[in-house]
Amino acid sequence: MAQFRYIVDDVDAAIAFYADKLGFVLEEQYGPAMAILNRDDLQLWVAGPPASASKAMPNGTKPTPGGWGRIVIIVDDLAALVASLKSDNVTFRNEIVKGPGGQQILCDDPSGNPVELFEPD
To answer: CA angle at residue 23 from 12 to 112, to 5 degrees?
Structure first.
């Protein structure tokens, strides 16, 4: 199983987004500091401000949400999921893009971390 960590602003909001909207299952939660969610063979660790993963580096740089590194979630019906997420006011970075292997779109979790939704051909 692959593990992936995102730094988030709010662990409860991250849990609601990934569990309620993207089909993850909450495995464990450590208060406002961290939670572990599973979806198929992916384990997502979300770390909030009190988590050790959110502490400043020795040079003072503080980990923050966002960027372009992302998890990829394979979906069966991209158009339907996108419509549902848009009706829930989820933010998208682009429109659906079609490529040689399928189609994809990027949405943001509540902290601004990108999530790629991908429907293979």
So the answer is: 50
Question: Is pTM, for the whole model, over 0.85?
Answer: yes
Give me the torsion for CA of 66, 67, 72, 75, rounded to 10°.
60
Quote the Cα angle for 44-47-51, to 5°.
145
* String of DSSP letters for 61-87: ----S-SS--EEEE-S-HHHHHHHHHH
Tokens of 72: 């990829």
Question: What residues are paired with 118 via a beta bridge?
Answer: 74, 104
- pLDDT tens sequence across 88-118: 999 999 999 998 899 999 999 999 999 999 9
